[in-house]
Amino acid sequence: MVNWQKFTKFLDFGILMYRLLMEPLGLFKVNKEIPDLKEPTGPIPSPSKITINAAKIEAEIDPLIYGSFIEVVGRCIYGGIWDEYNQNVPLIHGGLREDVLQEVRNLKVTIIRWPGGCFSDVYHFKNGIGPRESRKKEKNDHWHWYGPKIGPEHDNHFGSDEYMLFLREVGAQPFININFGTGTPEEAAQWVEYMNGDTSTEYGALRAQNGHPEPYNVKIWGIGNEIYGHWEPGHMNAEQYAYRFLEFAKAMRAVDPSIKLVAVGADFDYPEWNKTVLKIAGDEIDYLSHHVYIPGKVAATLSNSMKHFYNIIAGAFEMERRIQWVETSIADVMKHKQIPISFDEWNAMWNIRQHYEGYYTLRDGLFAASVFEMLHRHANTVKLATQAQLVNVIPMIVTSDTDVYHNPIYLAFQLFSTYAERFLVSYSVTCDTHLNPKYGNITETEIPYLGCSVTINEAKDKLVIIGINRHHAHDLPTTISISNFDPDSTAQIFELNGPHHSAYNFFDKKDEVRIQKKEFTEASTQFTYTFPAHSVTAIILHKTK
Ligand code: AHR
Known about the structure:
single chain, alpha/beta, binds alpha-L-arabinofuranose, eight-stranded parallel beta barrel, 25% strand, 2 domains, TIM Barrel, 11 helices, Immunoglobulin-like
């Protein structure tokens, strides 16, 4: 009998294009390496203004928005995080790369989703537990279609216990996506028992036998990944998904009623999906998942032009449009219960090769900062977000056999996860804008040159202004007026920037784009600060004594 799902996957346009044309013929690079910097700088924008009322709290930001994601694809886990056969770098626990752990610790990532992505819908957790030497070697049941660079074989040595070791090393919380595609509710329930059951249970005892007697107490569990898409193992319609979700929820909650469940959600590309899923299964759903990759292309080469600079930055506004749509779709159905959004895959991706090659530039860092600015604006509805992905695959951290570096997306993430405070206060921004035409899945967008987030700590004695200057060439002098907070004149400044808008890091220039510490001594309830061209700046103000 013909297996239609496998057959349609074989015919998938992106896979065919990559396997037959791009990879063999070397067509389409990820980026053009030589910066095209002779672009006109354009007219000087008018001065900007930020007006802040520090006493008015708009939202509490959930720290779980500073999350990331790791998948068994390319060299994200095997050959990135877990590099057991590499003798050139220090390893701990039999395979975790110390240099990568240090990078992840410095990022202050709060939660890490695993094992996929698409891969989660073909992964059987039992193949990844017990003595490593007896675990079986497998082809990558989802990604092998793309060939060995994207879907290499793996030996299952990074399983549930290694994932938890990794999380403990970096201080992040788990988020497991179970196998909905080729798995069963029983298997998912057994996985919950393996992670959370005490030693009197069958799978809890097995975990103890494997050297981990204490339950891991994994709280957040995703049921399936992008099931609405033809590419996903287990693809089905919304109604079928919702009823099957309920079977999984029942089986998993029978083992541990305290777990929180993330259901597959979609946006206006699949306009009926959320409504149908929520009507049938809403009462059992704790988070509704949402994924967005901009500009949604699979074989583009980006130049370092001003055009692509604004094209990519506009992507953060496209994400906001989609999140707004998801918010409405939830509110329309769930009258009696608020279901938050888990924005559990987001990034800029324009070329399949970014699964194993390529670098992100300062432009992409400004895009990522604009995503965090947007997530702060939506802090009342987006309670969890995991950037895709952490290492080597559309990454923030890149490894070679001997070395590691981080890119501007990492730095933007780090600036927000490190310096932004918990409570978003009321503020408004006045500035000039840039009109960006439609590009890929990004609709025409009016981009404000100045992005901004203003947060305050619980004690209300530290106010943090993060300003994003999205102009490719001009500085933005800005008047900042603050009410209900009297700042000390000395502020700490942390500025993410590089020599030009398309600067990027690599193994031989790890700090071309970096965060620099500066001092500023003219803060008051009304002061002027000039945000340098193409930068992200955290201004940390302390209340006068
Ligand atoms: O490239 C990462 C993949 O993109 C994830 O596995 C999937 O969820 C998404 O389509």
